[in-house]
Amino acid sequence: MKKTLSMIVIVLLCFQSGFAQKAKTETDSTPLFNPVTNCQLRYYYFPNLEAYFDTFKNIYYYKENGEWITAEEIPEGYRGYSIYNKSTVYITDYDDDYPCQFVEIHKKKYPYITNERVKKMALSKN
Fold first, then answer.
1. Which residues contact 47 (CB under 8 A, 6 or more apart)?
2. pLDDT, mean of each 10-residue run, the chain (126 residues)
């Protein structure tokens, strides 16, 4: 009796943990969506790098020698910046395959402001 009860409990626990894991992955794969622009939120733009990250393909788009490059990682020290300590912007109005065509628009819309520029702007207002 104890063996049968133990087996039932083990089978139920295995089934429950498998179901919980499946439910989690289904939720995680649902893309974010902007209802105003009817676009999926697919790209991050890094103003300090003038680079993009595609969340669907897990690749970066960045310029090297005037050409757009795609890679799984930004090269270490690229343009002297770190992607982790600077600003990141979600692109809400584009979800097709080539965001690089809008870099000039994004540079104007999301300018990169360094701490030095913030200090100079504050000093000039006084």
1. 86, 87, 89, 106, 107, 110, 111, 112
2. 58 48 44 72 89 93 93 84 72 88 93 64 51
